[in-house]
Design brief:
six-stranded mixed sheet, disordered N terminus, signal, 3 helices, 228 residues, four-stranded mixed sheet, 2 domains
Length: 228
């Protein structure tokens, strides 16, 4: 029996990575493969210096210990006085680097859900097999939520890819989450049997066939590590 799956991403820190969820969900053989990759580097902003707790006094004191003399000024990026030292000397500006480190399934909740119902009837005067094909449309949803948002300036968004196997084929869709904002996307998939089922009924007998599926909600958390 196939499942209707809603996947919620909880990101403790925001960045611009590709996150792929390869999701083959079956009540008998659940299979989840979470992949994430990417790294982003960009110049540290003044707001991020406050977030990271990097002050001019801290840097000056470190330089005093390392060089034996405390400088009057420190500069993290362009522009600077004296015709922009970073540009003129071709120095690399101070950057931060964010890397996706790990992902885990925090919680999975499942419950049975009723879908389409069909009435079967044997209109013949003797026992007979009645054919039925039970299919329906289910909605797969993917959403992202943000927790512990840091004051960071990111240039990229996060792209989510989901792949679900239904009726022997793979359904794929993706959506992009805007930095600092929750997002969601849904897509309809076909569920049910791929072949006609044969039900033996007595003469003038009727029966009811009910398509059942498992609705699942998975919470997945991705941890991001910062280097500076």
């Amino acid at each position: 029996m196939r499942s209707k799956c809603l996947v919620i991403f909880l990101l403790p820190l925001v960045t611009g990575f590709n996150i792929k969820l390869l999701c083959q969900i079956d009540t008998d053989k659940p299979n989840l493969n979470l992949e994430f990759d990417g790294e982003e580097e960009n110049v540290v902003t003044e707001l991020e210096r406050i977030t990271f707790g990097i002050t001019d006094d801290q840097i000056k004191e470190c330089l005093r210990i390392y060089l034996g003399e405390r400088p009057l000024d420190v500069f993290f990026r362009s522009p600077t006085p004296w015709d922009d030292l970073y540009r003129r000397k071709r120095w690399k500006q101070v950057e931060k680097s964010l890397v996706a480190k790990r992902g885990k399934v925090v919680r999975i909740i499942t419950q049975p859900v009723k879908f389409s119902r069909r009435i079967l009837e044997n209109k013949t005067p003797k026992k007979a097999n009645v054919s039925i094909l039970l299919t329906d449309t289910a909605e797969v949803g993917l959403s992202s939520a943000w927790i512990d948002i840091k004051k960071l300036s990111m240039r990229q968004n996060i792209t989510y890819d989901i792949e679900i196997e239904t009726l022997g084929t793979f359904s794929k869709f993706s959506f992009m989450s805007i930095w600092g904002q929750s997002g969601e996307s849904t897509q309809a998939v076909r569920i049910g049997s791929t072949e006609y089922l044969q039900v033996l009924l007595s003469a003038a007998q009727t029966a009811q066939a009910q398509l059942m599926a498992t609705q699942g909600v998975m919470n997945i958390e991705v941890d991001i590590q910062i280097y500076r």
